[in-house]
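hey team, just a heads up i'm posting the complex here instead of the shared drive bc the drive is being weird again. everything in one block, sequence lines first with there labels, then the predicted structure for the whole assembly after. its two chains so it's a bit long, scroll down
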Amino acid sequence: MKKMKKFIAAAIAAGTMMMLLFGCGKREEQQNETKGYVWVSEYADFNVEECDWIDEVVTLGDECYFSTSRYDEEKEQSVTSLYKYNLLENKAEKLNFDLEENSSIYGMAVNADGNLAMLINQYEYVEDEEGNVTDVNSKMQLCIVSPSDGALIDSKEITEVLDVPQETYFQYFSIDGQGNLYLADGDSKIYILNKDIQKVCEISIEGWINNMVTSKEGDVYIAIYGNEGMELKKVDVAAKKIGEPVQGLSEGYGNFTFRTGVEKSLLVSSNDGVLTFDIQSQTKEDLFKWLDVDINSDDVNQVGELSDGRIWAIIREYDRDYNSSYQLAFLSKKDASEVTARQEIVFGAMWIDSDVKRNIIKFNKTNSQYRIIVKEYGEDDYEAGLIQFGADLTTGNCPDIISLSQLDFAQYANKGILEDLYPYMEQSGIKKEDYVENILEAYDMDGKLYGIMPSFYLSSTAVKKSLVGDKSGWTLDEMLDLVEEVKPQYVMSYDSKESMLYYCIYQNIDEFIDWESGTCHFDGDQFIRALEFASQFPSQEEVNYNEREGISSLLHDNKLLLMQTSISSVQEYQMMKGMFGEDITYIGSPSSDRKGNVIQPAGGSLAMSSKSKYKDGVWEFMKIMLEAEYQDSLVNEHGGFGFPIRKESLEKQFEFDMKADYYEDENGNQVERPKTTWGYDDFTIEIMAASQEEIDEIKALITSAEKVSENADQQVTNIITEETEPFFKGQKSAAEVAGVIQNRVQIYVNENK
Amino acid sequence: MHFPKSRKKEKNLQFVKENKKRSGSNRRTRKGKLISIGYLFPSAAGVLLFFVLPFLIVIYYSVVDNPISNQFVFLDNYVMVFQNAAFQQAARNTLMFSLVAVPLAVVLSLFLAMMLESRIPFKSQFRTFFLSPMMVPIASIVLIWQVLFHYNGMVNEVLGVFHIDKIDWLNSNYAQVVIVILFLWKNLGYNMILFMAALSSIPKDILEVAVLESATPFQIFWHIKLRYMSSTILFVTIMSLINSFKVFREIYLLKGEYPYDTMYMLQHFMNNTFSRLDYQKMSAAAIMMAIVMVIIIGILFLTENYFGKDVEG
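-- predicted structure starts here --
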């Protein structure tokens, strides 16, 4: 009996423990899957040729109407066309509607008669005798167009009725159920005309109008950013005022777009996903997240609802050379059992980088075995998200793929959370020597690779070569000595007490903290010198950068000494050289080891969880970002942002940068023309082909960088910021403040030893 | 042994009856036990789930290298924590603070209770005055303390009137003095009420006899009152000791996770290691602290047993 009791007690204890432990490891299921269905996307060609840009889209049943713009190279002008698009049959029809010359469509809506009402601005340039434009006369026209063939039914000039200045630009145009017209300008004013085109009233809004929409019930609502996020308010034409915010739609400041709903009042699309909203009951229903249906929210151009319950979306995808193409996507509900189940790989990140997002969508579209789902921790509250991310990493909830962007990779590598990637590279035949070694090794610790960075750039500080020579780095003392010697009017373009102190120490923290021995040196002469140096600058509240001359003139006149900058492309390097007007040295931030040029990931950096159940799937995804196809896609004819890590791709990028563009002059000679124009503050420069010397300089800079940029230790930064305040306000001496910082940071260092 | 048949039958019958009775009472006992287990289960499960299990998990974490690889390292974490300079500093500070603050909290509140027991004017006003800190939310208390002891605070302003240089109360060796004052201010009232209750429960006849026997007030206090209050003194000491560990809350609100070193307490160490996900250090430190607490409280119990046994009978 006693044995039995013991057994029962042990079983209860073990059961409870197991429940706790396994409870932690349960993965979130997708919301729609729990309801027994999933949303799936199908793509269709967007059958509109010769379209550079879609301007305005309105829906009428299962058809949508929109105007497109296209640049006619022969006529050297933009051509606007009006299209009817049957979404059920995926058929486009160009309507016979010609926009007059010097006209543009400001808005389009469907009126009470089911015709298209178009707000058209006509302008005329007034020229003087020499042909210079001195003024613009413009008038506002309301055109009623038949939706079946585009025939003009009626046209009325409404400039005088509106009684607005000529230059007024109308951003939003809606028509309510009674036929009243609502025109919202860029100055947060709404003009309301009745169906007989007589002015009813003007309503002024506090804040900017971000959107205007007619609900299914026929009321017009505006979206504005209020104190607690995006607010939807009814335009009350009877009371001639704006109503109270509609509750229950949103709590954040996301980028929302609206369309008249089919079942519910509104269809709402955000960066996150799509939902329907019923205004009467103030309830919303989340339909899907864009990532779950393999669509990049950055590419979504227009969204609407069909009568059969499907959602349509016009997608515009850009490649890295900014070429774009339109596609049509249809999202429909499917029984979960009809969709092939795939293993779910969780991607954990504070925020997802756009390049990584693009790759995840591509992976999910093509991989039949695995599917990546994204868990963004920093969506709402950064601090809480970071804590949750850290907690998940160290418990059973660890994501399979970890974005290292906001994390101290060494801390997690030491805990055994990250998987060594070298064996996977070897197995896949990916050779270490094919990659820029020092960049690849940025996440190398004790011969193990804990992360990959598919593309990178460098963070640095530029200074005239004539002042520092060919140095590749400097210590804090050397920097302070130079400032004392040169005595420039400004040390940096953006300098305040706080930012200068931060600059002096954030890449140089090893100067003051020896983690190995667990000792701090904040009470030494060097930190006191840095404090006294920083105190010479105005405080963040006092400084007014607008009063200063342009950066380029300051540099040319030797009034500005240092420029904090990045080296993210050859063109940026050329621009910086041009701005200084002479040879420059990328000396980096002050650091005790004179290695102040630091490596930064340009498109996120990834690690694999050592506890992942799907390591092969994770590597399958990570591998894509190292392979030639992706690495070559990072090569950008126009410079781009960041360098590919693969040596061959990097060489291709340099080849592009060195290749000159030519045009033929009137004498038939080949003349080099600028590749592009760069601008920075008061400076603009035409970028020509880079010289071999410039490329060599950049290569040398890349190979000299060793350290990956780390986020400054938040605790140390907090203590320093808190304690230096009385010194900057003149209440305490530098030595006193340094003593307190030394004392407090020492505790932190001891604790972490 | 041989019995006559009828005797044997009778005896057998009796035996069966007895057996029946016994098995009936056994059933009742078993049923009673089951019922009591049923009643006990919710609270037992609660204790198991919320106290025993977390404690076991803490012990487990303290003997593995980390919660991911779970390699058994035996006492390595304890050795590492014991040798950690921050832990040593925290242990020293906590010990020093408790050694100073707890006796002061006991002695001063006892003194106040005695004072309020004697015939003095404005007794109830004084009682309310000493109890009022208990009603003030901790955030407000910290705000008041910041106003008082900030570098540009009221205390330094007053000192300035007497031409005394400003003292950086919260960033110097004076910091612990500030915390001791804050602790006493917050806790004296509660302790005082406990002592007043204990004083009022001392049998009046014994006190009267002592007065008739010409005992001096000191003798009455030392030989009677103190004896009768020994269990209350023990309770107040334990409560003050526990509260002295809780002073972290006030220090945290005053100076954050990393205060000046004299204010850095054991709970800072544990809190910080927890937020850094260093569960091993935290668990080892927590176990060591628990052991020390058990020893101290054990000693206090033994002392109370020794001094208070004659009055408790």
